[in-house]
Amino acid sequence: MPRHLDFNHPALQQLLRWEQNGVVARTQLCELGATDQDIARMIRRRELHPVEPGVYVVHNGALDRAQREWVAVLACAPAALSHDSATPGLAPGQVHVVIAATRTVRPMASVVVHRSRHLDTRVEWNQRPPRVRPVHATIDVVEDRIRDGDVAGAYAALARATQTRQVWPRVLREAVEERARMVRRDLVTAMIDDIESGADSVLERGYLQLVERAHGLPRGKRQQSSRSTGRRTYIDVHYEAYGVIVEPDGRAFHDSPEARNADARRDLAERAVRDAVTVRVTHALVFDEPCATAGRLAVILARRGWTGPGKRCPRCP
């Protein structure tokens, strides 16, 4: 190691440009051979800019998301990204990090610090930056949402994570089983079951629970592949024996003319290819009036051969 460290030293440039998005900690500079005078010189020359005690970046502008994550992890070191910051599919405004249960750190703006006794088994220290394994981060987020009373938010986070294909229902169940203590283990397990059945959103799960299951409708096939339009699409709920398709219609995916045209094109193609009737159900039809929605669907299914029996749910008038 050199006795003094220049900003352009290859080892420092490798760390800054290729490994840590332009962020470095004083401890790392010292490990490379820097003295206090070297660090002071780099700051004086505006090669490094302090952002937190003992943490520097290579510019004085706004930090991007990756840089904010590195700053938080290095300022709290040893630490790792966790919760929303380590769950696939989530992009939080705040940075979430986890440290050992026995430690305390200085508060930082827009950084949420969690504590855990399981860093050794749940953190991937070789990641850049270190992060909690995706499956454990996902369960942590789901638990936090449920603890706050936001069951829909918990399911939405779970659905987004699984849609990235970085976590799977099987490994989620294993993570749940290995935890000695959990918030609403039964609910989390039921959510994982619903994800595995193909209910890929809060609206789709609402339809599954409040309309289909609660009223004894036949069990639909979920996320069934179709090429009726000439390219691969997926049918949300298909009552194949009766030629009925149900599409939970969330606004996030249907607020543009292009999206509505694509839906209409698919509905028409399914009718032409399968002679299938497509029924679109909205948030209000599922969550505000599930009993009436189930009743109307039962009539449609009965006209196409379903003989029941359906049933009344506790909410039915």
Features:
13 helices, elongated, four-stranded mixed beta sheet, 317 residues, single chain, 44% helix, 3 domains, three-stranded antiparallel beta sheet, alpha+beta
Fraction of residues in H or I helices: 40-55%
> Given the helix and strand composition, which structural class is it?
alpha+beta
Trace the largest sheet across and list its strands: 9-10-11-12
Order of helices and strands: HEHHEEHEEEHEEHHHHHEEEHEHH
Short description:
This is DUF559 domain-containing protein. The chain is 44% helix and 16% strand.
If you had to describe this structure to a student in words, what would you say it looks like?
By secondary structure, the chain is of the alpha+beta class. The protein folds into 3 domains: 10-61, no CATH class; 70-197, no CATH class; 202-303. Helices cover 44% and strands 16% of the residues. The chain is built from 13 helices and 12 strands. It has a 4-stranded mixed β-sheet. A hairpin with a 6-residue loop joins strand 7 and strand 8 (131-132). It is elongated. The model has no long low-confidence stretch (mean pLDDT 90).
